[in-house]
Each structure stands twice: as C-alpha cells, then as structure tokens.
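Dear H.,

Thanks for agreeing to be a second pair of eyes. The structure we're designing against is below in token form, covering all 172 positions.
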C-alpha cells in the first residue's frame, strides 16, 4: 500500500510541476543579440557595424541563406561593404523613416513581413532594397534582415565613385 501511495504522490507531483516548467520556458520572449527586432534597429545596427568596419558583423544583417555555407564568411562581408556604399550614395535614404515597430510599417507593402528601405535607380529601372522578417532557427526570435532578393541584387548595383561624406544613421 505504501508503494502505491508513494508512486501516486510522485506522479501527482510530476503532473503538477510539468505545466510550470512549460509555462516558464515559453513566457520568456526570444531576444536577438544584434537588435534586429525592428526595421530601424536592424538597419541602424548594420550601419554602425559598417562604420566600425566590422563587415563580418554587418553581414549578419543580410539574409545569406541562399549562399552555400562555405561562401558566407567571405562573400557576406564583401556584400555588406557594397551595400553600405549603395545606401551611402542614395541621397533619398534616411534610416529615420524606417519603422521602430517590430511588425514594421504595414502600409508600405502588401506583405507584412517586408519593409522598404530604399529605392535605387539603375539603368532606367528602380530597384527596391527591402528587409524581410524571418526566423533563423526554430524557437528563435523573428529578426529583420536585408532580404534574399536584395542581397542577390547587390553585386549588380553600381554606385557613384564618390559617396556622400555622411550617412543617415540614428539610434535604434
């Protein structure tokens, strides 16, 4: 009889404690160490990394998942440096126009997971540089990265040889 009671108490204790463990595991919001939780903070972090010439860090603001992993370490910083030059050469780009809302600016695109950053005139066409809200790993936070199509376009965008002396940066 004592064995049944002890077993029953152990099962009751396990059942009672299980929801508390699940609740505490899901109640903490996922965070991102690079501050890519809204469009403005993501672009600001990218520009600050570039200003510090930390292009490896800046590449973490680009969605490089379309590149084979063995090429990301080399091509990521090169793409980040080129994107920095593109944004600095665009007199219409202003990071202060980007949303601080984690949901982004829902009025600028029919896709709520995209945010327009800049429009670049190239060869008589306008190219839109966008961020996209993605989840990089299961259970991780949603982060804003320069979209895969923006990253794919970077090598084909030509910039003037002399960019403006200042870039449009601000606090996130």
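And this is the sequence the design step returned. I haven't edited it by hand at all.
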């Amino acid at each position: 009889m004592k064995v049944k009671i002890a077993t029953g108490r152990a099962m009751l204790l396990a059942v009672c404690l299980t929801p508390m463990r699940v609740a505490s595991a899901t109640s903490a919001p996922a965070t991102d160490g690079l501050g890519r939780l809204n469009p403005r903070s993501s672009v600001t972090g990218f520009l600050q990394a570039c200003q510090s010439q930390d292009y490896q860090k800046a590449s973490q603001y680009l969605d490089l998942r379309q590149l084979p992993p063995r090429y990301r370490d080399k091509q990521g910083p090169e793409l980040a440096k080129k994107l920095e030059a593109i944004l600095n050469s665009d007199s219409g780009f202003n990071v202060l126009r980007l949303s601080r809302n984690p949901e982004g600016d829902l009025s600028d695109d029919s896709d709520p997971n995209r945010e327009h950053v800049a429009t670049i005139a190239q060869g008589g066409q306008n190219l839109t540089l966008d961020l996209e809200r993605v989840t990089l790993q299961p259970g991780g936070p949603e982060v804003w990265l320069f979209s895969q199509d923006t990253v794919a376009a970077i090598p084909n965008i030509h910039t003037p040889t002399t960019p403006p002396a200042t870039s449009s940066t601000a606090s996130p």
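Two observations from my side: The first helix runs from residue 2 to 27. The beta strands are 114-122, 125-135, 142-146.

Warmly,
E.
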